[in-house]
Write a structure and sequence with these properties.
327 residues, alpha/beta, TIM Barrel, 11 helices, 10 strands, 38% helix, binds S-adenosylmethionine, binds 6-(5-methyl-2-OXO-imidazolidin-4-yl)-hexanoic acid, binds iron/sulfur cluster
């Protein structure tokens, strides 16, 4: 843990761009093999109808977004997606559910754990994002084979009540602590472009840099303005603001994976290249995020190839399809 204060973070963030990039690059090179990018596939296993009122989210039942409420996907459907993800070169499979949180001792939670066991059995890292957790639910998820639990802080504690009223920042931190105590890695980041200030973004980083243990990964999402949500018309994030945020995150959290997350579908290849240069080393991979668009797999592989970056190799010994195709 190396907590940076908001003053220190402002100083880092507000340097001229090139010294900032130099600093981020030096931190990156000292901590990571030169050119690997983690590919994380994403699947919504329970879509829509969520009780929470997160102002950015197409899955909230508080807004008319056109996203239909669906039941939890069956094991076979999830496994079909997981197999496909593995074959296309992903090493992590991240499953999201639109509900307030996990209820223990329910048939639904048993089904989720069965899904986790099966996906872990394919040799993929398993990440889940299932909302609020108790200590016991976190232990059961760890036991089922979860590698990382995704639960974002999304912004500063000061701005959070402007975005969500159905749960609090303290609730988010409680769940993160439960995941850490159970021994899961924590994936925790935020969204840019909701009307927050740069200081709100840096406050979030200040809090993340104080996590013990440090977050295993930090997703940096750019708001996707979803139809029917209160934030639909929010102004797009300037690419240089995104690059600065990624560089500052890299410097604040040298050993954490920084994931260039939602919003890549609307970014140029050059913008993404700058984000990788600034220290991003993970992406969501596959043509769909949870409900909305992401770049196509072949476009991403082409981009990585053009930059001389390589997809992270799977941890298990057997070669995946992507590697086989190169031989
Ligand atoms: N329900 C769970 C939760 O809230 O933690 C998991 C799913 S939620 C969709 C996961 C994260 O996706 C959010 O915390 C947010 O950071 C991101 N996200 C959701 N909608 C988004 C949007 N329209 N644009 C960008 N990021 C978004
Ligand atoms: C995260 O930080 N971003 C992902 C993942 N964690 C679950 C989700 C992005 C969702 C984008 C909007 C949508 O697809 O509905
Ligand atoms: Fe529900 Fe998560 Fe969407 Fe909030 S972000 S409305 S908790 S699915």
């Amino acid at each position: 843990m190396n907590t940076l204060t908001i003053e220190q973070l402002r100083e880092i963030y507000n340097q001229p761009m090139f010294p900032l990039l130099d600093q981020a690059r030096a931190v990156y090179r000292a901590n990571w093999a030169e050119s690997e990018v983690q590919l994380c596939a994403l699947l919504s296993i329970k879509t829509g109808g969520c009780s929470e009122d997160c102002a950015y989210c197409a899955q909230s039942s508080h807004y008319h977004t056109g996203v239909q409420r669906e039941e939890l996907l069956g094991l076979d459907t999830v496994l079909t997606h997981a197999h496909r993800a593995k074959e296309s070169g992903a090493t992590r499979f991240c499953m999201g559910a639109a509900w307030k949180g996990v209820r223990e001792n329910t048939e639904r939670f048993d089904k989720v754990k069965e899904i986790i066991r099966a996906v872990a059995g394919l040799g993929l890292e398993v990440c889940v994002t299932l909302g609020e957790l108790t200590d016991k639910a976190a232990e059961e998820l760890k036991e089922a084979g979860v590698t990382a639990y995704n639960h974002n802080l999304d912004t500063s504690p000061e701005f959070y009540p402007r975005i969500v009223s159905t749960h609090t920042y303290a609730d988010r931190l409680r769940t993160i602590r439960a995941a850490q105590k159970a021994g899961m890695d924590v994936c925790c980041g935020g969204i840019l472009g909701m009307g927050e200030t740069v200081d709100d973004r840096l406050r979030m980083l200040e809090i993340l840099s104080g996590f013990d243990p440090e977050p295993e990964s930090v997703p940096i999402n750019c708001l996707m303005g979803m139809e029917g949500t209160p934030l639909k018309e929010a102004a797009p994030v300037d690419v240089f603001d995104l690059v600065r945020m990624i560089a500052t995150t890299r410097i604040a959290l040298p050993k954490t994976k920084v994931r260039l997350s939602a919003g890549r579908a609307y970014m140029s290849r050059e913008g993404q290249a700058l984000c990788f240069y600034a220290g991003a080393n993970s992406i969501f991979y596959g043509g769909k995020l949870l409900t909305t668009v992401n770049p196509k797999e072949n476009a991403d592989l082409e981009l990585l190839n053009a930059l001389g970056l390589t997809p992270q190799a799977p941890k298990n010994a057997c070669m995946n399809e992507l590697e086989k195709s190169k031989h």
